[in-house]
Amino acid sequence: MKKILVLLVIVTVCFITCINKDDKDNIDNTDKGKEPVTSTVTFNVNGGTGGQTAQVTAVLDQAMPELTANAPTNEDYSNDGYIKKYFDGYWDAASGGKKYYNADMTSAANWDKSEDTELFAHWLTVAQKYHITLGQDDFVAYFVETAPTIDGNGNDAAWAKAKWQDIKYAWMYQSPRSLSGTLNSDGTVSKTADFSGRFKVVWTADRLYILAEIIDDIIYTPGTNPTQSPEKNDCLELFIDENASGGVRNSDGGNNFFTYHMNFDGINVADWIGSRNELRNSHLKYVINKNNTTHTYIWETEMKVYNGSYPLDSTPDTTPLTLTDGKKMGFAVAYCDNDNNAHSSDSTQIGDRDHFIGSMFVTGSTDNERNVAYQNSNQYAKLYLVK
Q1: Check: CATH 2.60.40.1120 for 139-386?
Q2: Domain 38-124 is found in CATH 2.60.120
Q3: CA separation for the pair 351, 64 (Å, rounded)
Q4: Per-residue pLDDT tens for 325-343?
Q5: What is the distance between the alpha carbons of residues 270 and 256, in angstroms, rounded to a whole number?
Q6: What contacts 279, CB < 8 A, 6 or more positions away?
Q7: Residue 341: how many CB atoms within 10 A of its CB?
């Protein structure tokens, strides 16, 4: 009886094994004969230029095929100034949808469609890419591969990658000063018979570059000593707080910001350090293209950037900071306009500036309350370095 039971078990196992083997062979044969599901994928640059133009074949449930082109670009050199958008991969809709390629053109997802499909480039603004919110007078400066030549002409290709920023807020204008024009409710000058100004900024890894266009009907520079009251001459001022920390001059390691007063001689740069002016000629290289007929003055400047560890009361020729993508700084430009009292009968103001006009809105109801950029950097506009 035991022999019969053993025999039955052996037969049963063999029977089940054979059935399973036959089923597996049938399945394998079916899969082997099955064609993969493929789709033709085309690409839409969606407002940009370049990118993938050749079609590719995507296979269902597999990673997206390798692309042969570089990522597309999106740059606008319109009259409003240079604006760059950043590639955010290829998606299955012009807006929204699902991402199938990353910004570096690698596969972002397995293909999950059975029909031919058009993929669209998506674009990020500067604010989206860098996760920043630009305030009223904040702005960005773009990286340039080739730095502008400092010759006062301002016609280098690098400047095409920058947007003009206005110098328009009246910081000092009250009586007995006489501002030629009236003020808007936001503190800007609505008439500019005396003055108008604007500036641009670009950067490389080791320098910041500033181009300013100043229109001033009267140039008055009575001072001969560049460190003695430079603000009482017509001069361009650059304010920079390297890490946008805000605060007074001796905070953040001892030299929190710089207040460069650029003389009309194209050489001397005075920095007010709290009790006197320190000459900082090695920090800036600049050339002024002067057209006295049209009263137009182009200031082209190369700036070394230093942080709070730089000495407050001396000017060693040390290595400046390396500038990096995404860096945030406090920054402002202003102009001291001295007309030698050409617009006022008050002789007491001879030798003092008639107006002081800056690139950022400052709070305060009096000239002294608004003229604070040389004392602290709390209200400096934010400048973001981007690539």
Answers
A1: no
A2: no
A3: 72
A4: 999 999 999 999 888 765 5
A5: 16
A6: 226, 227, 268, 269, 270, 271, 315
A7: 19
